[in-house]
Amino acid sequence: MKLDVIKLDAGKAGSIDLSDEIFGLEPRADILHRVVRWQRAKAQAGTHSVLTKSEVSYSTKKIYRQKGTGGARHGSRKAPIFRKGGVYKGPTPRSHAHDLPKKFRALGLKHALSSKAASGKLVVLDDAVMAEAKTKLLAKAAKELGWKKVLVIDGAEVNENFAKAARNIEGIDVLPSMGANVYDILKRDTLVLTKAGVEALEARLK
């Protein structure tokens, strides 16, 4: 697959050959769904917790005598049926993460990249480098290029000035190639890869 390479000022910088094994697959929603579900489950805090009968702060004294009251037999105000009593079988802190094979995760990333390429929402940038960290300059360039919700994936390291300039612009996110993931790619309208980012992703996924 051949794609034009552009500069930040919208000028042309030649073209690039993209691997069909990574960018030319037929996107499958089931694979993308499984990988996104794995990502979101792994990111879930799992800190939900409630107080059980043994944990609530209440007197342990028998609330009234066993027999002769005409009411039900109760031994503790901590019982779940009482107001301010413990919660029965409530949530406890746990990890929501589940396993997903490494090869399947890589396949999911390939399908995410292919889906952007297939929909024409993949842009290859010559490099994401700025001489000075000026948000105004990057915002102007993004507006001229028509970028609204974009994810920029650079090589092994992100240019510091570019990252600082993008930090205050809503809708522009920047990641190094190792941070590329299915959820972030699908979440944004446009995917912008630098030439270094393309090389790093192809080396990672081949």
Description of the molecule:
The structure is a single chain. This protein folds into 2 domains: 2-45 and 98-205, Ribosomal protein L4/L1 (Ribosomal Protein L4, Chain: A); 50-90, no CATH class. It contains 7 helices and 6 strands, in the order E-E-H-H-H-E-H-E-H-E-H-E-H. The protein has helices at residues 20-23, 29-43, 102-118, 135-145, 160-167, 182-187, 195-205; strands at 2-6, 12-17, 122-125, 150-153, 172-175, 190-194. The chain has a 6-stranded mixed β-sheet. The two termini are 16 Å apart. The model has no long low-confidence stretch (mean pLDDT 93).
Summary keywords:
206 residues; alpha/beta; Ribosomal Protein L4, Chain: A; 2 domains; 6-stranded mixed sheet; 7 helices; 35% helix; ribonucleoprotein; Ribosomal_uL4; RNA-binding; rRNA-binding; Ribosomal_uL4_dom_sf
Task: Produce the secondary structure layout.
Elements lengths: L1 E5 L5 E6 L2 H4 L5 H15 L58 H17 L3 E4 L9 H11 L4 E4 L6 H8 L4 E4 L6 H6 L2 E5 H11 L1
Parallel strand pairs: 1-3, 3-6, 4-5, 4-6
Antiparallel strand pairs: 1-2
Helix pairs in contact: 2-3, 4-5
